[in-house]
Here is the input.
Amino acid sequence: MQQKYHKYASLTKLDDQVLQNKTLVFNVEETLLKSFSMFSYFMLVAFEGGGPLRALILLFLYPFMCILKEEMRLKSMVFICFFGIKKTKFSIGTTVLPKFFLENVGDESFEVVMRFGRKVGVTNLPRIMVEGFLNDYLGVEDIVGREINVVGGYYTGLLDVVVNDEQETTFAHIMSQSEKVGISCNNKCCQTPHDPFNYCKDIYVVSKDDKERWNNLPRDKYPKPLLFHDGRLAFMPTPINTLVMFIWLPFGFILSISRVFITILLPYQLSTPILAFSGLRYPSSMPLSSKHIYMQNTTTSSTNKNSKGMIYVCNHKTVLDSIYISYICRMNSTVLSYGISKLSAFLCPVYTIALTRNREKDAAIMHKVLSQGRNIVICPEGTTCREPYLLRFSPLFAQISDDIIPVAIQLNVSMFYGTTASGIKAFDPFCLMMNPWPSYYVQFLEKLPKAWTCGSGGRTKFEVANYVQDVIGKALGYKCTALTRKDKYLMLVGNSGVVN
Here is the structure.
């Protein structure tokens, strides 16, 4: 077939109705993503899938790979990142990489791709790295990518050279489409017999200047909201950023251990200024809508045995949420947690009680603690959410007491996430404290009006829980959802997330 090459800019002038009837064949890395280098995505695979040592090896060898030809450099990175990784355990393509792909998508290129009715994604990367992103967020029906050889259930790190049955089916789907349009870079297509661009009559060429003019895709334009993702790295691991991280790791490890034990061993009056001096930012400035802090009864409830305690209901960011609230209030509180590791419970300087997920037993526990005059800090979401969304609030707290104070929590980290779904949860507080300047913002909102309580106001527990969720969401600027802990763990881990 004789192909016609056109400038990419001319494609943007075509009518939407015309493009809806055509099939688009596009190169993912070269015509959708802004970045020219794929190192960051391989580093994510190496670090999250193979550990820091494998990531360090990739970083050390990458300068030598840069002198290799593009195909050889790609094969080298695939081998380093995938060798010895168990196929059934590899979930990074759906739990980690989509976030970083979305943050690197060009706004202008995204709009062009989404105007087509049917889309075929072509990638030089291993198919398993991009499949989750293209299927879940772009609605790409067919993907043409490289396959990695598997022996005994483990990746060998070697790219397959034989076209398998799945790829043959994909090529058959492409050939069956009547009108096909390609988007690629110059001299990057139609070079092999199985290149899907061979079936395109018109090919639009994206130049380097075109990509440099693209803007990042705004979050509100994501085809599907990015609610859940996993992994420890909170930054795009470019070569320079990764080098800085490894230089920081020894200092971060020592700093993390120091911060944790200062929190455990020293009283509030001493630990607070020391932790602030170490770079742990306290809520001296509140970037939230309201600055009002409700502090009534926070001291009397801990000293007067005849008074009942308050329930502090907060959104969930990390295992340290309740500790921050206790530190700010200087109160004798009790933390109720749906799932916490034994190490985290041992290190927690605040009295912690594990809930059983049995409504009757958990209600009895909460009544007993409140009757002793102790305040309760609880996160009814049941699990953490890194993105600006609130999961559904469990309504149990609403029927226990009318003395409820919503608490809005916001967390900023620059290097490591202090939460995980598939990793070792006992490391969560240490990973959070390894950040150079982790920032916690805690905002105490107005006490719940009597009209919005179960006892005095006659509201149902579900109405109260939804109201508290809405109040916290508005204070943070977060969107409220009906998703639960089970939804998160089914997506990221494949189970219901129940911790024994």
